[in-house]
Design a protein that fits this description.
Blueprint (H helix, E strand, L loop, with lengths): L18 H4 L7 H18 L2 H15 L4 H50 L2 H5 L3 H43 L1 H8 L2 H38 L1 H6 L3 H50 L4 H43 L20 E8 L9 E8 L4 E5 L6 H7 L8 E6 L2 E2 L5 H6 L1 E5 L9 H6 L7 H11 L2 H4 L19 H15 L3 E5 L7 H15 L3 E5 L11 E6 L2 E6 L1 H7 L2 H26 L1
Parallel strand pairs: 3-8, 3-9, 6-7, 7-8
Antiparallel strand pairs: 1-2, 1-4, 4-5, 9-10
Helix pairs in contact: 2-4, 2-6, 3-11, 4-6, 6-7, 6-8, 6-11, 8-10, 8-11, 10-11, 15-17, 17-18
């Protein structure tokens, strides 16, 4: 199924329809599942024996006028033996049933994580990280209980109900049929309120996911929150989501209270019916006791099943949210027969490339043609919204072209494997993401398993060694959440070191220095110039003074490519590039004056 809703995930179905989708997840553990069900069957069967023992003891007591000790001891010994078996069965069910549930939960989490890794940028454009985290952690936690207790509960309840009906029907079929006429009403009550809970549990999950997303967003942006003194605003946003959760949760408990009140009413009706029917059909005292005992077991079975309704809804809603992610199609995949891209020289060609984002009608790029030769440094400049970053993102297939084709060394990028394509492309972006770990760990991410000497070599080329020695533990210093312990320039040089270590023939620099101060920019620019040497480089520049030496400059607007040439030729043309360049120089000069003034004050 495709995704059509605003969240970017597959649309939801009724929760009951997901049960059949869950069943195949038992397959790897079928042996354990069968043993669990057999133990459940044995334990349920043993529970049905006790009222028959009571009947025998009572019958003999009525005949003799007193309870016979030998008879009691005989049945007590049997009861001890079968109870020991029941205890063993319940131990197995409790331990290994839950272990099976944990394994299924682990499988689902692994599957979801792998699927999320394969989804395109367009999916993440419409997602909140917090909601995805909620789906892969909190939601799937309920799967453990659901996967174990759902079949066990249904199976045990069914065995008890069928067993009780069979035993009692052999005793007095008329009274049994009258008594069991109440069961469909209890079943209807359960189904009716399960339908009531269905949508509300989905709302609960959605509200909880929104709370998680808001917390993640607020904590990740804690420095921004404090810098604008907006703590109160964040608290109000959180409180709004929290109140929505309380409202939906309260409605759930309203339905639950009504449901269990109805069950208790049926409980009273059941016992009254036994009393009245026993008198009408003039059953014996021992049989009357049997009906009371089995009536209690029957009610406990129905209540046991009813009690599980909440857990069922939690589990199936969790699986539903899991399945919505898994039903979301992987838009960008390797086509059948795709070949590895090898011995890449770095010739890139755009042929009539058109691109528009999903659910929009405007073409970001339209019939764009562009050739970049091996070893060239090509700068892409232009006003915001012209498609510069989009153009760069299409080369590694972060997004799929709407029409046309992109070729590398004459190979359509759709005909080669994505792994080999992306292994041959290095990307340095403005927004650097560093993972939790050390400086060395983050550099090694460029080529997992690289030798220490190779990591240090890449670090020297990127200028990381200039500041690494000043850190407390050098390259083994932890960078903090998203690299918060490093400055912007230091983080950027770590990201450049990653690409040095990767050593790709094609390089994409997406406004890599635009967020840096002038001093940091100068240092980072030297590293970037060294990195670009001998590679095919595509540079998206904010500060146009950094691309004056580019082999070719492309001026891209929402109307397409409007100018092409070297820096000097474009300045002479006195067109859009000249205006953009003059504006960039004035902005840089103003920034330098501001920085100089700030430094003088400090």
């Amino acid at each position: 199924m495709g995704f059509e809703n605003k969240e970017g995930v597959a649309p939801k179905r009724k929760s009951w329809s997901y049960v059949k989708d869950f069943i195949p997840h038992y397959r790897p553990y079928i042996g354990l599942f069968v043993l669990d069900m057999l133990c459940s069957l044995l334990a349920a069967g043993i529970e049905l024996v006790f009222p028959l023992f009571v009947e025998q003891i009572t019958t003999e007591a009525v005949d003799t006028g007193f309870v016979v000790l030998n008879t009691v001891l005989k049945y007590a010994a049997i009861l001890v033996a079968i109870r020991a078996v029941e205890i063993g069965c319940k131990f197995f069910v409790t331990k290994f049933g839950h272990i099976m549930g944990v394994k299924i939960e682990s499988d689902l989490r692994r599957n979801m994580f792998a699927h999320l890794q394969k989804l395109s940028h367009s999916f993440y454009d419409n997602q909140k990280v917090g909601t995805l985290m909620s789906r892969i952690t909190t939601d799937l936690f309920d799967i453990t209980e659901f996967s174990h207790h759902c079949p066990e509960t249904i199976f045990i309840a069914s065995v008890r109900i069928i067993g009780i009906f069979t035993i009692l029907a052999m005793k007095d079929w008329r009274m049994t049929v009258c008594l069991f006429a109440l069961v469909p009403f209890m079943a209807w009550l359960t189904i009716h309120f399960n339908n009531k809970w269905d949508d509300n549990y989905q709302k609960n999950r959605g509200n909880m996911a929104e709370i998680n997303a808001q917390v993640e967003d607020s904590l990740a942006g804690a420095r921004v929150v404090k810098s604008f003194a907006n703590e109160k605003v964040e608290e109000e946003k959180f409180d709004k989501g929290n109140k929505a959760f309380v409202k939906s949760k309260s409605l759930t408990y309203h339905y639950m209270g009504t449901f269990f009140a109805g069950i208790r009413a049926m409980d009273a009706i059941m016992y009254i019916s036994i009393l009245v029917l026993g008198a009408i059909f003039k059953i014996s005292a021992p049989l009357f006791l049997v009906y009371l005992l089995y009536g209690g077991t029957l009610l406990n079975s129905l209540i046991y099943f009813a009690d599980y309704s909440e857990q069922f809804q939690k589990g199936i809603t969790a699986f539903m949210r899991y399945q919505q992610i898994m039903d979301t199609p992987i838009e960008i995949t390797d086509k059948e027969g795709a070949q590895d891209l090898t011995e890449v020289k770095g010739n890139i060609e755009f042929r009539d490339v058109t691109f528009r984002y999903k659910n929009t009608n405007r073409d970001i790029l339209a019939k764009l043609n562009l050739t970049i030769n091996q070893g060239e440094t090509v700068a892409i400049v232009g006003p915001s919204g012209g498609g510069k970053t989009t153009l760069a993102n299409l080369i590694p297939r972060f997004y799929e072209v709407t029409d046309g084709e992109i070729l590398i060394d004459g190979h359509n990028i759709k005909d080669v494997t994505m792994k080999s394509l992306r292994e041959n492309i290095g990307v340095v972006q403005q927004d650097v993401y560093l993972f939790w770990g050390t400086v060395a760990d983050n550099i090694e991410y460029g080529r997992i398993g690289a030798l220490k000497e190779e990591i240090l070599g890449a670090a020297r080329l990127a200028g990381v060694d200039e500041f690494a020695d000043t850190l407390r533990d050098g390259y083994d210093s932890f960078v903090g959440e998203r690299g918060v312990k490093l400055s912007g320039g230091q983080k950027q040089r770590v990201s450049i070191a990653r690409v040095f270590l990767k050593n790709p023939p094609i390089l994409i620099l997406d406004e890599a220095t635009s967020a840096l101060d002038n001093e940091s920019e100068v240092k980072v620019q030297k590293s970037l110039d060294l990195l670009a040497k001998g590679r095919t480089s595509i540079v998206i520049a904010h500060r146009l003074s950094t691309i004056r030496n580019a082999d070719k400059i492309i001026v891209l607007t929402d109307k397409g490519i409007v100018e092409t040439g070297t820096h000097s030729s474009l300045i002479k043309n006195n067109g859009l590039y000249k205006k953009l360049y003059d504006l960039s120089v004035r902005t840089e000069n103003l920034q330098m004056q501001v920085e100089h003034h700030e430094n003088a004050k400090s």
